[in-house]
Amino acid sequence: xxxxxxxxxxxxxxxxxxxxxxxxxxxxxxxxxxxxxxxxxxxxxxxxxxxxxxxxxxxxxxxxxxxxxxxxxxxxxxxxxxxxxxxxxxxxxxxxxxxxxxxxxxxxxxxxxxxxxxxxxxxxxxxxxxxxxxxxxxxxxxxxxxxxxxxxxxxxxxxxxxxxxxxxxxxxxxxxxxxxxxxxxxxxxxxxxxxxxxxxxxxxxxxxxxxxxxxxxxx
Length: 219
Prior knowledge:
This protein is mainly α. Helix content is about 80%, strand content about 0%. Helix 2 runs antiparallel to helix 4 (about 55-85), helix 2 packs antiparallel against helix 9 and helix 4 packs antiparallel against helix 5.
């Protein structure tokens, strides 16, 4: 038997450090969105004065987002590892698709805001009042507060449904996921909605970490 065959039969083992991916994602997302929440006005009709006053805070928040995205990919892998052969194809597709769409729109929105900062640095006097700024501002607002939030809600619904059927997470955590997802999917705009998804991921990750620690101590 070749080395490759033996490696395939043994299978890849998920590193224990992967279990903290959800915690890392939650903390980085809360930090980056908190900075953006305090630096950028809530409504797309606001002026571009924040580009002058809060540009450094926005740049710091944007630098955290790629690392949060990497951690979220690891978190998806951790959930799939928890399910193992119990994974249902239908809900696995919705779970994975909504997670990747959420992440893609997060990156696109961050890139749009980064482009606004760069364009403002080139022409600070003209860009704040230009049609390009108003367009970019509306695009980033719609991506984050409409489409990305809705995909986060779909991710929570599919994950909660799988948790209810496979019991990889407690029932109360799945029911909480349904309730919070209903707020995200059913609302048009909530100023504090950015905290709902990462906080729920944090609770789920802490439960997975506690379960892994309990199994390790028993072994």
